[in-house]
Amino acid sequence: MTLHDPTLLIGKNYIDGKWQSSLSNATFDVTDPSTNKPITSCPESTPQDLELAIQAAAKAFTTWKQTTGRERSRLLRRFHDLVIANKEDIATLISWENGKASADAKGEVLFAASFLEWYAEEAVRIYGDVVPHSNGSRVQVIKQPVGVCGMITPWNYPAGMITRKIGPALAAGCTVVVKSDGNTPLTANALVVLAERAGIPNGVINIVTALENTPLLGLKMCQSPIIRKLSFTGSTRVGKILAEQSGSLLKKLSLELGGNASFIIFDDADIDNAVAGLIASKFKGSGQTCVSANRVYVQSDIYDVFLEKLVRKVRDFKVGPGLDAQSTMGPLIGPNAVVKAVEHIQDAVQKGAEIVHGGQSRGGNFIEPTILKNANDTMKITTEETFAPVVALFRFSTEEEALKRANDCDVGLASYIFTTNIDRANRVSENLETGMVAINTGVISDAAAPFGGVKHSGLGREGGVYGIQEYLDLKTIVTVKANL
């Protein structure tokens, strides 16, 4: 595989404006999940490497925080423009190391760029307030950057998740230290190359790579007094560990954790639109997204018609290598993901579900898109996030039943409703216990929209005007008017 610009493929750490190996000189292989063959190697970084990155970010913060919002805006806009100019190569890297189908990968690049564009615009709109004080003094409320931010990004959106974090951080005046996922470090590194070309100063963005040492680096970020905020996207289990490890320093946290999205289709829904929405939600990234529909509740009167139309569409899918332009769905990220998907399918069948389509591993990291009917609440797929292209259809009778079953879950990231009844749409969306609800669409993420969940799905929000607030501290300044 070749890139239009081969210099975007770098297997190094980026610390204080320099690409470098780990102090230990240890490396790990980055593999193509479509073939399980190595692409290149990257540094197996140690806490000592991370400390160098933290110190570089701390040094850069002293000057970066003094730049104007307009200066930061222009740099982010240049960064955005370079991502768009190199979108083909970035998409190739995503497909290569993540396995994502080419069309999905290209969509992710545009998604990633949109955060840089949005926060380029927000950088000049960090407004404070003047508020009345009870004793007649003047009160100013100003917003200042938190400081050095640690970021741990996931493999399923190697471009989108890094820009969704560094965009608002840089716009706010923070500097960052990024630990990219060991499965997908090359996309993140390519983005940093473009940030450097855009003119973002040395030390403002630092990035370290690791596979086996990831827990050690996470602990280091949590225990570093220099890092004042930690942003993590990943599993609920790991998020809770990071929260505990950060507790003694009262570090600001953004935790975007696991989901188990309900997808409710009422009998008055536009069925064709609901099918299209489910496909968009469930099969993007081979079902490996935290907002993928995991529990699909279909009202009994339309259950059979919906199932028939869904199967007809899914039969046209082409499973293959992500870099094959004909593929509509690529592999899963690795063998463990395949094992879990097959386990969920087999468990469902043993407990009464019927495979209507797919259901088999295709060798390597490939699995067929799978549709199960007659799912019930005793199955693992009900309580665990499947993270695979497996659709389980549940029947329901009443609105009250659908709400109760949808909310019977310890996580609450996203949910979906399909209905043409506006009163029902409002009523159900307000009563669903999730941070996000999509009505009559399977697409929920956008740069302008706050992204995040409730319950065990995490803390804080990413995206939109709310996302930049996570990287700002409020300062109150009280001035006695008589002294003016």
Automatic annotation (TrEMBL):
One of its GO terms (biological process) is gamma-aminobutyric acid catabolic process. The keyword Oxidoreductase applies. It is an enzyme of class 1 (oxidoreductase). GO terms for cellular component: cytoplasm. Gene3D superfamilies: Aldehyde Dehydrogenase, Chain A, domain 1, Aldehyde Dehydrogenase, Chain A, domain 2. Belongs to the aldehyde dehydrogenase family. Keywords: Oxidoreductase. Signal peptide: none annotated. GO terms for molecular function: succinate-semialdehyde dehydrogenase (NAD+) activity. InterPro entries: Ald_DH/histidinol_DH, Ald_DH_C, Ald_DH_N, Aldehyde_DH_dom, Aldehyde_DH_Superfamily. This is succinate-semialdehyde dehydrogenase [NAD(P)(+)]. Residues 19-477 form the Aldehyde dehydrogenase domain. It catalyses: succinate semialdehyde + NAD(+) + H2O = succinate + NADH + 2 H(+); succinate semialdehyde + NADP(+) + H2O = succinate + NADPH + 2 H(+). Pathway: Amino-acid degradation; 4-aminobutanoate degradation. PANTHER family: SUCCINATE SEMIALDEHYDE DEHYDROGENASE (EUROFUNG) (PTHR43353:SF11), SUCCINATE-SEMIALDEHYDE DEHYDROGENASE, MITOCHONDRIAL (PTHR43353). It comes from the Eukaryota. Its EC number is 1.2.1.16.
